[in-house]
């Protein structure tokens, strides 16, 4: 889905490691906060959104994605200087392997995946961590290998047909562990790592039992799902679609995998209800690095869906404890109607969002 790739940007000269400072990436004690992603690699739009929501403190986080073209782009992100001095703490989408282009929606390079899983790519992630620390982003959230239970990511564990696991699925956990260990070992690093599948209402495959792909509590600081207002082309209305997002099932209650029970609680699929329980079981923050509105022509979305926006904002206030980032970007997804920023023709959902988050979380 469109949510899983970093939109292409023109890549200027590398920023290197000489710059320092900026408030972006310096963390406080409470992790909960609202953020935005808009595909611009710039804080300008989120600053407008913060004013629209009443104060600079209304928006705490911004998100950007590391260019996945090759190892040289992964370990030396060109956009670091764009964010230095911004008022936002950063959430960085970090690819687990190169894709030959900035987008992470690509065919899996098995040799590179094996390299990461075997520790042969550790030096690239050490260099990335050193550059983040030097640029003032040493306390950022690192969203590593997101949406891995889909069939469109370069590190995905589901095959292209979505019918089962890939032959390289076993590389995911050791690759994740190696990257975390490498980045945490850098002097000055205080990163928080997000483990981030997508809601199984949107993507899953036989064999993708998420518990088997959890890297372990020592490697994870926040657990997350991406949860958009779209679960496929067959829906019976806004209320039913929201229930399916909660339960992690597609239309008519279908799911590829049934999660393990948690403290006697059972689940249909890997949805928001499961996420809250899993985070509590492991003592981790609950994060939503991607959530947003979908057009009716994309995955059966609800367009200007007031049911989704009302229920999601209520769920966030009741359950979230880590970064919550709205996908404010067009292309199948629909942005909010924020003056001087974005217009997705979503006035009703936008009004609910504004009422819910004026003043922040």
Keywords:
361 residues, alpha/beta, TIM Barrel, 8-stranded parallel barrel, 10 helices, 27% helix, 13% strand, globular, disordered N terminus
CATH topology term: TIM Barrel
Q: Could you say how many structural domains there are in total?
A: 1
Strands, count: 10
Number of helical runs? 10
Amount of helix: 25-40%
Order of helices and strands: EHEHHEHHEHEEEHHEHEEH
Helix- and strand-based class? alpha/beta
On the 0 to 100 scale, the average pLDDT is: 90
Largest sheet: 8 strands, parallel, barrel
Strands side by side in the biggest sheet: 1-2-3-4-5-6-8-9
Please, could you describe this protein's structure?
The protein has 361 residues and is an alpha/beta fold. The protein has one domain: TIM Barrel, CATH 3.20.20.80. It contains ten helices and ten strands. It has helices at residues 44-52, 71-75, 80-83, 110-117, 122-134, 172-184, 238-247, 272-282, 306-319, 347-357, and strands at 33-37, 61-65, 89-94, 141-144, 192-195, 222-224, 227-228, 285-294, 323-327, 333-334. Helix 9 links the parallel strand 8 (285-294) and strand 9 (323-327). Helix 5 packs across helix 6 and helix 9 (306-319) packs parallel to helix 10 (347-357). The relative contact order is 0.15.
């Amino acid at each position: 889905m469109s949510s899983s790739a970093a939109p292409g940007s023109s890549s200027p000269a590398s920023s290197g490691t000489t710059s320092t400072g900026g408030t972006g990436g310096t963390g406080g004690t409470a992790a909960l906060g609202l953020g935005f992603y808009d595909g611009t690699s710039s804080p300008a739009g989120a600053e407008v959104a913060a004013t629209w929501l009443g104060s600079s403190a209304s928006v705490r986080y911004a998100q950007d994605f590391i260019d996945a073209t090759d190892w040289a782009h992964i370990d030396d992100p060109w956009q670091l200087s764009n964010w230095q001095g911004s008022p936002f703490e950063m959430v960085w989408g970090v690819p687990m392997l190169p894709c030959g282009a900035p987008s992470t929606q690509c065919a899996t390079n098995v040799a590179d995946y094996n390299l990461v899983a075997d520790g042969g790519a550790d030096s690239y992630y050490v260099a990335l961590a050193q550059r983040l620390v030097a640029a003032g982003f040493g306390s950022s959230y690192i969203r590593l290998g997101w949406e891995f239970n889909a069939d469109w990511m370069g590190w995905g564990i589901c095959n292209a047909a979505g019918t089962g696991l890939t032959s390289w699925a076993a590389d995911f956990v050791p690759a994740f562990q190696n990257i975390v260990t490498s980045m945490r070992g850098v002097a000055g690093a205080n990163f928080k790592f997000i483990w981030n599948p997508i809601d199984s209402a949107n993507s899953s495959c036989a064999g993708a039992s998420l518990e088997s792909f959890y890297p372990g509590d020592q490697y994870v600081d926040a657990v997350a799902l991406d949860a958009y207002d779209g679960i496929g082309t067959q829906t019976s209305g806004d209320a039913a679609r929201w229930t399916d997002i909660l339960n992690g099932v597609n239309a008519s209650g279908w799911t590829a995998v049934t999660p393990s029970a948690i403290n006697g609680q059972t689940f249909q699929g890997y949805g928001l209800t499961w996420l809250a329980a899993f985070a509590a079981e492991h003592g981790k923050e609950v994060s939503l690095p991607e959530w947003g509105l979908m057009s009716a022509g994309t995955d059966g979305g609800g367009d200007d869906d007031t049911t989704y926006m009302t229920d999601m904002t209520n769920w966030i206030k009741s359950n979230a404890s880590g970064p919550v980032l709205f996908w404010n970007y067009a292309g199948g997804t629909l942005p909010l109607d924020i003056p001087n920023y974005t217009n997705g023709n979503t006035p009703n959902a936008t009004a609910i969002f504004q009422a819910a988050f004026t003043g922040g979380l």
